[in-house]
Amino acid sequence: MVSLIFGLLAWLLLPIIGAIIAVVSGHLARAEIRAAQGRLDGDGLAIAGLVLGYLQLVFALLVIAAIFLFFGGLAFLLAMAH
């Protein structure tokens, strides 16, 4: 549940921190579920949280790269103009 909740929060309120918590707690939950050998449920919730967390991290990295490319390219063009 924690992974899914923070996976959703990563998209709504806490972009990077929520995604990191979703990924870490999702992996911990899946390990605990595997170790319980069928006595615990929730693998689907953990996977959903992992997917949301990883997608948010990839999206954040793409946004950061686009910002650097845009402003880096803009700075290059301005430097070439002078």
Quick take:
This protein is mainly alpha-helical and 82 residues long.
Please write out the topology:
Elements: H1 2-12, H2 15-35, H3 43-81
Helix pairs in contact: 1-2, 1-3, 2-3
Structure in words:
This protein has one domain. Helices cover 87% and strands 0% of the residues. The protein contains 3 helices and no strands. The longest helix is centred in the last third of the chain and has 39 residues, at 43-81. It starts with a helix and ends with a helix.
Keywords:
single chain, 82 residues, mainly alpha, 87% helix, rod-shaped
User: Please, how many domains?
Assistant: 1
Major pleated sheet: none
Helix content: over 70%
Distance between the termini: 56 Å
Overall structural class, as computed from helix and strand content, comes to mainly alpha
Integer average pLDDT:
90
Write down the secondary-structure element order: HHH
- Count, helices: 3
Shape: rod-shaped
Poorly predicted runs are none
CA-atom Rg in angstroms: 18 Å
Strand content: under 5%
- Number-wise, the strands total 0
